[in-house]
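fwd from M.: "can u put these together and see what the complex looks like"

so here's what she sent:
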Amino acid sequence: MMLGEENKVDFSSKGIMPWIVDNLVTIIFVVFVLWGFSVSKDIKTYFFLSELCNRIFRNSFLVLSLIIPVLAGLGLNFGIVIGAMSGQAAILLVRYFDIGGMGGFLLCFVIAFFFAAICGYFTGKLYNKTRGQEMIASLIVGFFANGIYQFIFLFVVGAVLIVPATHPMIKPDGVGIRMTVDLKTAEEGGLKYALENIYKIPFIQAILIIAVVILIMMVIVYYLNVKNGQAHKNRPISFCFNAVLCIAAAVFSIHVMSVTPKLFNTVYDLNIVAGSLNEKADIEEITSKLKAIVSELNTEAERADEAMAPKFKAVVSDITSKVIPNLDKPNMQRGVLNLIGSSATKLNNVAIERSPNALVANIAQVTTVPVITGVFIIALCIFTMLIMKTKLGQDFRSVGQNQHIAEVSGINVDRTRIIATMISIVLAAWGQLIFLQSVGTLNTYGAHLQIGMFSVAALLVGGASTSKASVKNAIFGVILFNAMFIISPEIGKSLFDQAMLGEYFRSFMVYGVIGAALGIYVWKDIKKSKLDVE
Amino acid sequence: MIDAENGGAFSRLKSAVGSIGIPTWIIAGLWAIVLSAGYYKGISVETLLSDTIRRVGMNGVLVLAMVPAIQSGTGPNFALPIGISCGLFALITAIEFDYTGASWLIMSILFSIPIAGVVGYLYGKLLNAVKGSEMTIATYTGFSIVAFMCLIWLVVPFSHPNMGWFMGEGLRETIQLDAIKGANVLNNFAIFNIGGEVVIPTSDDEKGQTFVITEIEKKTTTINIKEVEIPEVKGGGITPTFYIGDIKLPTVIGGKGIRIIKTDSTELPAVRRGITIPTGLLLVFAFFSVLVWLFFRSKAGIAISAGGLNPRFAQAAGLNIDRSRVWANILSTMLGAIGIIIYSQSYGYAQLYQAPMMMAFPAVAAILIGGATASRAKISHVVIGVILFQGLLTTALPVTNALFEGTDLSEIARMVIQNGVILFALTQVKRGG
Amino acid sequence: MSDTLLRFSNVTKNYYGNIVLENINFEVHAGEIHALIGENGAGKSTLMNILFGMPVIHSTGGYDGDVIINGEKTLIKSPFEAMDAGIGMVHQEFMLIPGFTITENIKINREITTPNIVSGVLGKRLETLDMIKMDADARKALDTLDMGIEEYTMVAGLPVGHKQFIEIAREIDKTGIKILVFDEPTAVLTESEAQNLLAAVRRLAKLGIGIVFISHRLDEIMDVADRVTVLRDGQHVATKDVKDTDVVEIAQLMIGRKVTLSRVQSDKRKISDEVMLSVKNLHVAMPGEMVRGIDLEVRKGEIIGIGGLAGQGKLGIANGITGTYLATGKVIFNGKPLPLNSPRSTIEAGIAFVSEDRKGVGLLLDESIELNIAFTAMQIHDKFLSNFFGYKVRNDHEIRKHAERMIKDIDIRCNSPMQNTGSLSGGNQQKVCVARALTQNPQFLFVSEPTRGIDIGAKKLILDLLLKLNEEYGMTIVMTSSELAELRSICDKIVIICGGAVEGVLMPEASDAEFGLMMSGSRAHVRGNDK
C-alpha cells in the first residue's frame, strides 16, 4: 500500500480539474479581461492597445527581475523596491549634474548597478538570516529602505550635503529633493525618452517582427535539441501549436499592413514633424519633410473623388501657406503646432473612413513601439534563460529545490542566495530606469512604492508560484495584468457609472491575487506533506 | 543552586534586566535622548508627555490585539486591518442608526463584537489552512480586505448626512466624529490635569469679561486657548473656565488643575499646560488589558498558549490546536475592531478606504519593542512597547521640527524604527516548528 | 585479497570523556564486501562520521588512532575531503532533489561545464552546462548498475528502489571512488528491490571497489558479505569470515550480556487474567517508525516491554494508540473500543503517555514545572481551576500545592516549582513528564524510552519509580525502549518489533542469541534451517 509517491504523479495527469486548480489565478484573469471587454462600451481598441503597449514596455523588465529569486528558493522578492530606489538614486545623481541624452542614461545604468549591487548584498544577507520568512522580510525591508531613502533625499541632501537652493531639483528652502523632478527630454539634455525615442516602429510591424523572431528561435532550439541527441526535450504538440500561432500572427500582420490606407503613414509623418519641432530644430530639414508630405497629399487629392479632394486641398493650403512660412518664427510656434495637429486629425479621419474595417483602423492608430526598449527586454529574457543553463543557474535551482541537499553537496548556499538577490535587485534598478525614462518625470517619493506589489502580482497572474517562474510567466503576466489594469476602471464606469469602483476593484485584485496565489501554494504544500498509514 | 538563593533580590533584578531585549533598550534610549533634546530646545516636556499618554491609550487596544495571535502561534497579527475594517463597519453602522455621544461608542463596540467574531472565525480557519506561512498570508489577507472594503464603502447604502460625500455616492474618506458628538468621548471622561498653570492678566474691574486669546507665546505651549471666560464668583475672587482645544478644564484655584495667578500685567497670558490625563481612555485600555491577562490565565487561554509554544505537546495532551488558533484569532480580530473604535474617537475622525492598510505594522512594532517575540507575548510587552514607541514618535515630531527647521523626521523615524524592529524580530524566528 | 583499501587502526573516540568507540581495528580490501553490524548505539554511525570527517567529530576533539586509506595515514576533516579521498556513502534517507532529472541529481555540484564569453570575464561559475556530456556520464553510471531507465527522467515519482540506485549511481560516477559505504540500504526496499540492490552491490565489488555494508538483516549479510565486523557498546567484538560463522553466532555477538540492571521482583504484584488493552491490526504513520499491522494484548497489572532496533516501528505503537500520529486499526481498552487519533479520548479513558521525545512532545520548555505537571489534568479533567464570575481560571494555589507534593514524592531536583523545565537536567525533565502523567490518575501508562539521555544513576531511579507505580498502585505499564537491559530488568515479557510488525514475544530470561535473532528479523530463517 504505497500510497505516497505514486499517487502524486497521477495527480498532475489526472485530467482537467487539477489543471484548473493549478492555473486558477490566470484563468480568472483571462475571463475577467474578456468579460470586461464585452461590457465596457466606451473603450476604444486603439486606446486599449496603446496603453497596454506602453505599460508592457515599461513594466516587463521589472517583472522579469523577479524570476531568479523564485528559482533560487527565495520566493517572491518584494525587495525589488530597493532596486527601484537605487535606480532613482542614480537618476537623481545624473540629473543633478545635468548629464543627459543616451550617454547620461548609460551612466545611470552604471551608477544604478553599483548602488543596487551594494543594497542587494545586504538584502541577501538579511534574507539568509530570515530563512523561511523571506517573503514577509522582503516586504518589510522594502518599507525599511524607503525610510532610509527618504532620510537621504529629504534630509541629508541639503542638511548634510550642502546643495544650492536654486537648483531646480532642490526644494526652495534648500533642504531635500522636490516631490517631482522633471527629467527633461533627451534633446534638451535630459533623460526623458532617452531610450524610447531612439527608434520607433509601428505596432503592427512590431507584431510581425516578434512573431517571426519567436518562430525562428523555436525552430533553432528544436533543431539543436535533435542534433545534440536531446530530442526528448522537444514537445512536438506545443511546438506545432506555438508555431501555428506565430505564423498566424505574422500572416495577420502582413494582411493588415497591406490593407491599411497609406494615408496613416502620412499622419504618422506629420506627427513626427510636430514632435521634432522645438527651438533647436533644423528648420530646413523640417521644411523639406513638409514639402514631401504636401506632394504626397497632392497626388492623393488628384486620385480622390470630388467629395474627398477639397479636404486634401484644404490641408495642403494650410501647410503651404500658414505652416511653412512661419516655421522660423519662435512666437508662432504654438499656432503652427496646433495647425499641424488639426491637419493630422483631419487626415486621420479620412484614413479611418478609407479603412476596410474598424479593426484595421484601430490597429493603425495604436502608438508606435520603442524598439530599443524592446531589445533590452528581449535581451533580459535571453539572459534569464541562459543564466539558468550555467553552473550558477543550476546552483540556483539546486538551492531553490532543497537547501539541505545543496549544502551537503558542497554548494555554498548562503552565497548563492546572496548572488540571486543581487542579480534581482540590480535588474530591478535597471528596470526602474527604463520605467522612468518612459514616464518622463520622477515622482521622487512615490514612483517606487507600488513596484514590488504590481510586479509580483503580474508574475503570479502569468502562472508563476512562489517556487516556479519562467520568462513565459513574466511576459504573459505583464500583458494580462496590465490589460486588467486598464479595463478595470472602464468596467466600473460602464456598469456602475463610477470609475472609482473599478480602481478599488483593481487594487483588490492586486492584493487578492498575491494573497490567493500564496495561500493556494502553501495549502497544496501542506496537503502534499500529509502522512498516510502504510 | 545555592548561589541563586544567596544572590536573592540582586540576581533576580539582574535576570529581569537581562531579559529586556535589545530593541527595548534602543528605543528607550532614543526616547530619552529626544526628550532631553526637546527639553533643551525649550519644548514643554509636559505637553510631550500628555500627548504620549493620549497616544498610548489610543493605540493600546490595537497593540493588545497582537497578544492572542502571537500566543496561539500564528505570529503577530499582520492581518489587523481585518479587525479594523470590522470595527469601522460597526462604527459607521452605529452612526447610521443615529446614535450619538457615549451611546454611539457603546453601540459601536457592541456591533463590532459579533461582526469581528464571525470574520475572525473565518480568518482563523484560513490561517489553519496555511500553517507555516501565516505572517505572509496574513499581510496580504489584510491588504485584500482593505481593498475589498474600499468597494464596500463606495456602495454601502448608508445615507446619514454626516457620512456621505457632498455629491455622488459612497461614504467619505474621513468621517468627522465631532458631528455626532463622538470625538473624545472616552478621553474626556473624568479627564484631569496635573500641574497646569495659567498666568492671566486680570484685575478686579474686569470681572465677568470674556477674553479671546488667539495667540499664545510659542515656546511654552502648542495648544490654543480659544476663550477664557471669567465669571463672577460669590464672595469675590475669580473662577474662569479654560478650554484646551475643546476640552473644558476643571479649574481649582490654588489646587490641582489650572492654577490662576492674579496679575496686573496687561500682556498676554502664559500657559503651562501640565500633564493631561484622559482617565476614561486609560481605564478602557486597562480594562481590556486585564481582560486579556485574565483570559490567558483561564483554561482556554492556557490551552492557546501551550498550542503556540509547542503544538505537538498540546496535541499530545488532547487539545485541539486548530480550534485554539481559531479562538485566538477571533479574539485578536475583536480587539482590533474595538481598538479602532477607541482609536477613532480619540483621533476625532473615522478614516475609511486606504487608511487601515498599513495600520498593522505600528502595532506589531510596538509589541516587539516591548520585548515580545514573534512567538511569545505578554501584557507587559504591550504596555511597555506602546509607551516607548508612541512616546518616541510623539516626541520626535516637535523636537526634530525644532532641531532642523521645517523637516519632519518623525515620519521617517517611524518608518525606519517600525520596520527595523519587525525585521529584527524576523531574524530571530526559528525555522520550522 | 591483499589489496587493503581502508584500515581502522586502534580508533578510539570519546565525547566529553564518555567513550563511544574503543580500539576499533579492521580493514576493507579491494573488491571485498565488509559487513558492519551492531545494535543502536554500538558505534557504527560514529565510526562512519570519523571516516567522513563530519564536523561533529572535529568539534568534539577529534579521535585517537589512525584511519589508513590506501596504505597512507589520512586525517579527513570534512565530507568533501572524504569525497576527494574516494570514499562515498549511500545514505539511508535519500539526498535526491525530486524536481531534478536523474542526470541533474547524479551530477549535483559536479556539473560538467564549458567556458563561454562571459565566464572568461566573470569566472567559472558562469560556464555553460554541458548537458550532453552530463547525460552520457549518467548513462554510463546507470549502465554499470544495469538500470534501463532514461537518464532524463524526473526523480519525483520514481519508486524507492530506483531512488536508491540513483544514489549509488551518483557515488560511482564520482571519479576514483574506492570505498563505498551502504547505510542500511535495504531498510526501505521491497523484497525484490532488495535482491536487485544486493546484486548491484556484488557487481560493484567485482569492479574492485571496497564496500562497507551496514545492515542489521543477518540473512542479507550472510548472503552478500565476505566478512563481518561486530560492534557492541563501542567495542570491537569480532571480525569473522562469513563462511566461518552463522546467524546465531553473529546475533549472540551483537547482543552480548551487558552491564545488567538487577532484576527486582516483589510478591506484592498482582497480575490478573483480565485483558486490559487489546490491539488489533494497528497501522501507524510515524515517520521513520512506521507500524504495519500489530496485534497486542496487555493484561491488567502487567509490565510489558516493547523492544526492537531503531526504525523498526516500536516507537510507533504507543504514539499511534495515544493519538500523536495518524493510526488505523482496532483498540479495545477496558472492554470498550478506544477511538484512535484522538489524544483526548485516550486520556479521558485513563491512559497516560510519557513520550520518547521529551523536548518535542513531553514538555513546555519555556513554562514552569508546576504548569507542566498540572497541564493535562487541568485541560482534560478540569482540575486546578477556580471559578471567576463563571469563568474557569487557573488556581495557582492548588497547582503549587500539587507540584510541591510531586516534587517531593518523586524527587525532582529543582530550585522551585516556578523554574522553567528547559533548565532542568534530562533525568529531572523525565520526572516532570512522569509527574504530569501521574497527575492524570491513569490506570494505564505508556512510557517510551524513559531513560534516553539520562545518566546511569537517574536511570535506576526512573525504573524503580515505574516498578513502584506498578506495585503500589497496580498501574499497568507498557514500556518501549531501545535498551534491552532495561526492558529485561523490569518487564514481565518483551515484545520484539521488526519491520513494523510483531516478530515475537520473549521472556526476560531468554538468551542473547534469541533476542539478537529476533531483533534482526532472522528468526524465521533460523527456524527454516532447523527443519
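replying to her w this: The longest strand of chain C covers residues 4-15.
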